[in-house]
Amino acid sequence: MGALDLAGIESAARARVPRDIWDFIEGGSGAERTLAANRKIFERFALRPRVLVDVSTCELGQTLLGTRLDTPIGIAPMAYHRLVDEEGETATAQGAGRAGALFVTSMFASRTLEDIAKAGGPRWLHLYWLRDRAALAALVERAEAAGFGALVLTVDAPRIGRRLRDQRNGFAVPPHIHAVNLDADLMATSHRSEKGSSGIAEHAREQFDTTLTWADLGWLRARTRLPLVLKGILTAEDARLAVEHGVDAVVVSNHGGRQLDGAIPSLAALPEVVEAVPAELPVLFDGGVRSGTEAAIALALGARAVLVGRPVLWGLAVGGADGVHQVLDLIRDELDHTMALLGRPRLADLDRGAVTDWPCPTD
């Protein structure tokens, strides 16, 4: 692709992807305040470089919940990768595998878990809590058999946010693309297109269990040996409850600005969540990262890994597995470069002392 930064890949992807699909990928909920805030808040932090440190080699590898990773940059869960590339999630898995990066695979993947596993690379499975618990249990069993390393349960989506772009477009999943790991009857509503409504939202209203509480986590725990990660934690209160309920890790996330509009930006929530949990419990982060420097800020604020969403689909749309690999490598290389110039050559060196609050010029 030849792009030197993610902006070039984004521009190339936008020229290739149909408008309604682009809006589905890029859009947020409501007035998209949180979507914008996820990006803007990085400007509130500046880096504090140290000097005269041996930075001849920067160490970016780590083991997370038993999964060995070559980079702290991973892929956030996103549905239906075949919307932008015929090979879909198998190409994404190949690109992630070449980068040694974690791929959190959506339960609404458009390729089978088994095919994704064959493509290689570190992988965890993402879940929404369906009303049909038998379908959920069967999916968990398949994931464990296919070598997925953990379960990532989204907890901030009892309903889908009001995504006005999708409603204006009457967006629905195209008929030739399916969430192939679930029974077609469970997914039928997602294919229904009507102006002023969203097939994705209609499907969520029909299938997501809005009665889910902390007490239900025990049911899932009893059905798997895999570590359990909760995605969508934004407060210290919920972080402490996650610890009390035996969760193995949390992801600080506001769903990429796609759920509650006006919710706190993920980066603003990160420090209080990190402070609320034991040091040994991993806190992952997603929310607007578009460079290795921004990833360094999140890591310095306490994240153990940074998950990237939309840019991965840009790369997939432009170059398939090669494009995914390029996106991940661009961010990793920028992170490596930033760590060297910061004088902090190990992930453990990226601590709160590496960043300082820096009010936006417009404040």
UniProtKB/TrEMBL annotation:
Q: Which PROSITE patterns does this UniProt record tie to the protein?
A: FMN_HYDROXY_ACID_DH_1 (PS00557), FMN_HYDROXY_ACID_DH_2 (PS51349)
In the UniProt record, does the keyword Transferase occur? no
Q: What is its EC number?
A: 1.-.-.-
Q: Which Pfam families match?
A: FMN_dh
Task: Tell me which residues bind FMN.
Answer: 77-79, 106, 154, 231, 253, 258, 286-290, 309-310
Name of the top EC class for this enzyme: oxidoreductase
Q: Which cofactor does it need?
A: FMN
What keywords sit in the KW lines?
Flavoprotein, FMN, Oxidoreductase
Q: Where is the FMN hydroxy acid dehydrogenase domain?
A: 1-360
In terms of superkingdom, the source organism counts as Bacteria
Q: Which residues bind glyoxylate?
A: 128, 163, 255
Q: Which molecular-function annotations from GO does this UniProt entry contain?
A: FMN binding; oxidoreductase activity, acting on CH-OH group of donors
Q: Where is the active site?
A: 255 (proton acceptor)
| Family classification | Belongs to the FMN-dependent alpha-hydroxy acid dehydrogenase family.
Protein's UniProt name: Alpha-hydroxy acid oxidase
Q: What is the lineage of its organism?
A: Bacteria, Bacillati, Actinomycetota, Actinomycetes, Kitasatosporales
